[in-house]
Amino acid sequence: MTRFQITGRVAAAALLLAAWPAQGQDFSAERLSHGVRSISTDAFAGRYPGEIGEGLTLGWLQARYEMLGLEPGGPDGEWLQPVDLTRYTPVRPAAAAWRADGDIHPLAEGVLLRAASNDGRAQVSGAPVVFAGYGIHAPERNWDDYGDIDVEGAVVVFMSGEPDGELFNGEYRTAHASDSAKAAEAYRRGAVGVLTLVDAEAGEPAWGRRAQFNDRRRTLSPGNDDLEFTGAVLAATFGQWAEAAGRSLEDLTADLGGGAFRAMALEGVTLDVDAEETVETERSWNLLARIPGTERPEETIVFSAHWDHVGVRGDGEGDHIYNGAWDNASGTVGLVEMARELKAAGPFERSIVFLHVTAEEQGLLGAFWYAAHPVYPLETTAANINIDMLPLSAPTRDLPIFGLGQNTLEDELQGLAEAEGRYVTDDGQPEQGFYFRSDHFAFARAGVPALMPWHGVDLDEGGREVGLPAYQARFRSDYHQPSDEWSADLDFTSAVENLTLLYRLTIDLADSERWPGWKPASEFGPVRARSDAARD
């Protein structure tokens, strides 16, 4: 969609705004409800990037911010930041073979491969193979699977997940556990490709899930590390490589959990890979609005929310429009309402930016694009506060956040919550890995302290006994379903409570010289430390 098409829809969006209730001094459940209703109607067609809902949504947002008196916050004084989504589709099945003792062993099965290089080609010949355990380098936890080994030009094989034990987070995994973090570490060390070892215990179900998506079109995150290829290898196949190097799979994986393991090369074993994928680029847009700071405008607080949803799916009878009222019209409108209140209270010493990102549903792509192409330096971005799905309930005592224990923003929020008789807690769903699944993660991965509030379940009236089943029922019935639609009985009372606390947190931080920080055990602290000089 072109810039002309998007701005051409501003007039239509302005008509929608004509019915918006009069401005007030405080957060309003009525305004939240009205805004969610506006951008989750069928006319917005599920707000899918590149389709009609994109232009309508961005036009609605721009018109709203203009009415509130905010300035454009995008590049070159524009409202929009272009985002290029790069999609890869295999041209043919990848070819691979391993070599040992002069023998060539073609790989017809046991390995799944995707070209990862920016040009869509992966041509590797004679690459040595290194087993790196869990493939984790975590100095904040005194953990290093690599040691002194040189993996320049090698294929790195690593286990999935992370070790059990006190050095890691137990139920709440760290970012180190993800394949993408391990691939980034291997790339930083000069590897040409990475393979995740699917162990014998995981077996065929885990392999089948990976194989199911291996030949489909995919979109890589902006700033993706330019490895030649990524993929997975079955334990039985990798065991053959180990045996050819005079080792065994059991020997290699015997001491992975204690911290003494160091990566080792499979001597005499090499890998050849030839893969090709078509590369297509589609243009989408982030939208940014800004309240400039008066004393230190280069220091920025960024609010974020994704404007997109999953569009229209299926055909035939029934409702095929995924309106996304909760996910994430609620967070989108929540940012506009936050801008309204902060604009009325400001200006502040620091700048405040409202970032509406695209393609969250496709893998946080708009947020990763912003982190790779920041309009405002990440080194002097004091904090990111992300709103993805406002709570839809009566008042709650609890204010869950994703990633409890990560940074000092939660401590400041806890103090504000206690003054209201409330408390900050974790999200209670460690199996979901929520801290790595919304747009704040792009900021956290870049070192910016990031906060993500969630839906409370400890109701003022009824407690968890009533609140938890009600939340679970709504999530099961509406999350990523056509039923996620606006209705007059949506309760935004708890949303108003949460927004009010975030507002107070922001006002305090926006007129402060302090820099929120990561806690000692956080995996993101070492990343932030690289730019300490910019904040001295």
Describe the structure.
- This protein is of the alpha/beta class and 536 residues long.
- It is 30% helix and 23% strand.
- The protein has 15 helices and 19 strands.
- The chain has helices at residues 3-7, 10-17, 29-39, 52-68, 179-188, 203-213, 235-244, 249-252, 325-345, 365-372, 409-418, 440-445, 463-478, 493-510, 525-529; strands at residues 71-72, 80-90, 95-100, 103-106, 111-115, 121-131, 137-138, 143-144, 155-159, 193-198, 218-219, 229-234, 264-291, 296-306, 350-357, 381-386, 398-400, 423-425, 450-451.
- It has a 15-stranded mixed β-sheet that branches. A two-stranded antiparallel sheet has the order 7-8. A two-stranded parallel sheet has the order 17-18.
- The radius of gyration is 24 Å and the shape is globular.
Sheet with most strands: 15 strands, mixed
Report the portion of residues in β strands.
Answer: 15-25%
- Average of pLDDT: 92
The global form is globular
Q: Quaternary state, please?
A: single chain
Q: How much helicity do the residues have?
A: 25-40%
Distinct helical segment count? 15
What would you call the structural class? alpha/beta
E-strand count: 19
Radius of gyration: 24 Å
Q: Span from first to last CA?
A: 42 Å
